[in-house]
Amino acid sequence: MPARLRTAGWVVLTVAVLIGLEFGMQAMVPDSSIRQLLMLAAIYIMVAVSLNVINGMAGQFSIGHAGFVGIGAYTAAIVASHLHAGATVSSGPDAASFAHSGSWFR
Question: Rounded to two decimals, what is the model's pTM?
Answer without folding.
Answer: 0.55
